[in-house]
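Morning, I've got a small favour to ask if you have a moment. I owe you a coffee for this, so here goes:
>
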Amino acid sequence: MADSYPARQVRPRRRGRKVLVTLVVLLLVLGGLLAVADRVAVAVAERTIADQVRQEVANQQVESAAPEVEVGGFPFLDQVVAGRYDRISIRLRDVQGSVQGNAVRLPQLDVDARDVRASLDTLRTGQGDVVARTVDGTGTISYDSLAALLDRPGLKLGERDGQLAVTAPVDILGQRLTVNGVVEVVVSEQGEVSLKVNDLDAEGLPAVPLARSLLNQYAQGISIAVPLPELPFGLTVREVRPLPGGLAVTADARDVPINQTAG
C-alpha cells in the first residue's frame, strides 16, 4: 500500500500539466487566427481606400500611378469598430498635372493622414466619406518641369549650396552669354509659389548701362508666380526647398475627405 500511494499523486499533476499545455496551445492558435484576421482586414481596407483615392485624384484632373496605401495602428479591428484610424499613409508616384499646356511632374507625393474617420459601412461598400483631421504632404517638383513653365530656351534650374540656381544662354548686344544666378522661392500664406531672381550675372557682360539693363529685364522675366497644378486632398503648399533631386514641397490641410464620395 505504501508503494502505490506516490503513483496516485503523480497522475493528477501530469493531467493538470497536459490541460495547461493544451490551454496555452489553444490561446496561441486563437491569437494567431486573430492576428491573421486583423492583417486580412487591413489588406481589404487598404485596397478599398486605394480605389477611392484613385477616384479622388482623377476627379481633380491629376494623373498618377496606382496609389499605395498603408493603414497604421494595431490592432486594426479595434479601429474598425471605433470608426477611427490612427494613420493612413498614401504614396502617389509619377504625379502629373497640366498648367498652361505644360506638364508639371512630381516623381513622388507622400501623404500622411492622421486621425482618420471612416465607418465600417464605408469601408465595406465604398459609399460615404473617409475624412482625415490632418493631412501632410511632401513631394518633389522636377527642375525640368519648373524650367518648362518659365519658357526660356536653354534655361536650367538646379540646387547649389542649398539655393535654387539658374543658368541660361542669353543674347545681349549681339553677344551670346551664359547668365548665372540665384532664385529666391517665396511661398505666400495662400500657398502660392513665386520665383524672384535676386542675383544674376554673366561673364563677359559689356560694361555699359544698356547691357546691365537688358540683363535685369531677363531677370524680371523669370521672376514669376509659379502656376502649380491643384494638389490632391486640398493640400496647400507651406514650404519649398531646393534639393539636388528637385524642388521639395511641403503641404498640409485639415478636415479633408480623402476619398471620392460615391452615389
In short: Helices lie at 4-59, 76-82, 120-125, 143-150, 209-221.
